[in-house]
Amino acid sequence: MTAIAGALLAVLAACAPSGGIPADDPRSEVVVDLSQYEDQKLDWGTCDEFVRSTQDEEVFPLVPEKECARLEVPLDYADPNGDTASIAVIRIPARGEPLGSLFFNPGGPGGAGILGTIGAALFTPESAVTESFDLIGFDPRGVGATEPAVDCGLTDGSEEGADLLAKVGTPFLPLTKDDTREIVDRCADGSGGVEALKHVGTRTTAKDMDLLREVLGEDQLNFLGQSYGSRLGTVYAEEFPENVRAMILDGAFDPNLGSQDRLLESYVGFQSQLEKMAVFCATQAGCPLGADPNGWTPALQALLQPLAENPIPAGDAELDFASGVGGVMGGLFSPDAWPLVIEGLREVQQGRGDTLLSLSTAIGGITDEGESSNQVDASLVINCVDETLLGADELAVLREDTYDRAPMLDPGAVDDAELRDKCADFPLTGELEIPYGQQVDGLPPLLVVSLTDDPTTPLSGAVGLADTLGGTLLTVDGAGHTVIAKGVSSCADAIAAAYLIDLELPEEGTTCAAD
Fold first, then answer.
1. Over the Cα atoms of the chain, what is R_g?
2. Distance CA 479, CA 267 (A)
3. Catalytic residue among 266, 454, 489, 493
4. Among 30, 213, 223, 474, which residue is least crowded by beta carbons within 10 Å?
5. Residue 369 phi, psi dihedral angles, 5° rounding
6. Cα(329)–Cα(312) distance, rounded to whole angstroms?
7. Sign of CA dihedral 364, 366, 367, 368
8. Could you say which of 101, 132, 227, 379 is catalytic?
9. What gap in Å lies between CA 316 and CA 353, rounded to an integer?
10. What is the pTM of this model?
11. Is 199 labeled as catalytic in the residue annotation?
């Protein structure tokens, strides 16, 4: 089950003028004619063609008033007369008189915007926001029902896909030149070719979002972006500052951190949450981590490290070290799941791995029945396009720092083979140009939101983003990942509504309680 744990860890890993900026030169002043796309009319209808899984079949009917359409966009914004892509879009009409549209991205990269938008609507049945705005979501480039969709065959159930996912998804496992070449070949073969892979980055998706704004007839954009959505929103603000009316960035990526520092910050965040969960566990009889704070991480290692060589049964599959750690990390996203992690560790003591495996697969977009979205594949490719390559020395330092500061990820034995970036053979990397979102002129006041104990996008990232964009920071005292429209804090939701509807921002230093 290394492949499934890799699915989780792959997901964790995870000022330009307006108009038609080429994807390979995001700060160019060249403007191309997009009128053939801006003049299109969306054909709103049922969302049936966007159903991709049993989960979709169960959730989609819960919001019967939704309607869906496809937006045609250029595959490459530098060549608008060339091949095209088709963006899957959903609209959930406002329950009252609409003030406009609120665009929403639930996170990722690789997260399905269609399903996430339905989830947001279910969490806000009486919200002033959904009373006042049409909720607009879309599957970003390469994701879900958008075409072409990324398919690297990593979670298709094949032995070849499982072997490759085990290599790319588990941190610090040495890769060969053949491995990284196989990644590109499999992704290109399943995703419409190398050219399609080049155009799934965040800058291209930001251009799609602005084109959708134009087609919908919105003079300016209202946007709520969570987790990776905060990166998408920041890039949009950088590319199209004059087109922003209101923007909430929740669970923020720090635009100043490169891949090495961002990954380490995330791993350290999970280690911190493990220790908070252990405090909770220690109050219970028979806590599998014990009652000694100095012994919590060693106790976890004693349970999980042996699984590297000796996996244990987990239903019809097996739980190894990587999927065991993946399950723990999956449960650390929210305190609500801490009892499941504790139960999973108790099961490991008994020689079973069912619960931890289920937690691990869920974060990777894989159901207990084995159904898989393309979240893992899309996350891999989008990150490869966005971020710069790490060299062998940088990866070795990251491994050393990770095992030192986040020892929960230490498998107990280190392979001395030279490390190779999984994106080493991709045709285009570094499109995002980190740091990004720097010195953006003409941007209206933004709202940045963070929980004080966020395991994967720590509060420091929100502080960095607010400082970079000149936004107002709202903190929520509690643990978990992202806040707005999730039933986490009625105080924060009310502040978000006042900002989106009336552009009223809270005072600097405002902190809300979690409900």
1. 22
2. 16
3. 454
4. 30
5. -85, -5
6. 19
7. negative
8. 227
9. 10
10. 0.91
11. no
